[in-house]
Design a protein that fits this description.
There is one protein chain. The protein is mostly helical. It is built from ten helices and three strands; from the N terminus they run αβααββααααααα. The chain folds into two domains: 81 residues, Arc Repressor Mutant, subunit A; 140 residues, Up-down Bundle (Four Helix Bundle (Hemerythrin (Met), subunit A)). It has a three-stranded antiparallel beta sheet. The termini are far apart.
Length: 229
């Protein structure tokens, strides 16, 4: 009897880890499908259909959708389904107002606080972005961009900034992917991202902040061009 409780607690912990892992997997797959428009704005989703398509249980799918709803990528309609959110260029400009200030803070903090391991990862991401640009591989670029966003938020070692910026990345990446072929420049976009990653890898806080501003400047001009068109 003495060994029963510890075993039960261990089993519960392992069960939670498995659920968390499946939720993270479901989130990553669904987020990329929405961002890259495999699931289009206005499309109605079903938990059951997604569970069958991805081979992941309904509970992790539901938890992933709830997270995506908090980020504004889907809207959960009680007893009707899940709606992939529309894309609004004018709201994107409002988002950029907040993103500019947060990303400058995060870039500077990441350059100052990142560990040696994190700096090596920033360098690898910069090289990956440059390679994706040279090969004109937009999906690879999107994945490296996502890695850069997440690593910056972690390397800044500020949980509040991490939570806040996490609500914006998916919306920004989806907007870019939808319109970049019309009004954006992939090599330039990739270059701006790579310079930001290199500045953080070098531990240069001021250069990282400036690179962040230049990147958001470009994204804002790209967004305004989209609104005008």
């Amino acid at each position: 009897m003495e060994n029963t409780e510890p075993a039960t607690n261990s089993s519960r912990k392992q069960g939670h880890k498995r659920t968390d892992s499946l939720t993270d997997k479901a989130y990553s797959v669904l987020e990329e499908m929405i961002v890259t428009l495999q699931l289009e704005p206005g499309e109605v989703l079903s938990e059951i259909a997604l569970s069958q398509e991805l081979g992941i249980g309904r509970t992790p799918i539901r938890e992933a959708l709830q997270r995506l709803a908090r980020e504004g990528l889907v809207t959960i309609l009680p007893r009707k389904g899940i709606l992939v959110s529309d894309i609004n260029p004018r709201k994107q400009l409002l988002l950029l107002e907040v993103r500019r200030e947060l990303e400058r803070l995060i870039a500077r903090s990441a350059a100052q606080r990142s560990t040696d391991k994190e700096r090596a990862a920033f360098k690898a991401i910069a090289e990956g972005i440059e390679k994706a640009s040279a090969e004109k591989d937009d999906i690879a670029f999107m994945r490296f961009d996502d890695e850069l966003n997440k690593l910056m938020a972690l390397a800044a070692h500020n949980e509040y900034a991490n939570r806040a910026i996490g609500l914006m990345h998916g919306l920004s990446r989806r907007f870019w992917y939808m319109h970049y072929k019309e009004t954006a420049d992939l090599p330039l976009t990739a270059s701006l991202h790579a310079k930001l990653a290199h500045a953080i890898a070098n531990g240069d806080a001021e250069a990282a902040a400036m690179a962040s501003d230049k990147l958001v400047d470009y994204v804002e001009s790209f967004t305004r061009a989209t609104v005008t068109s």
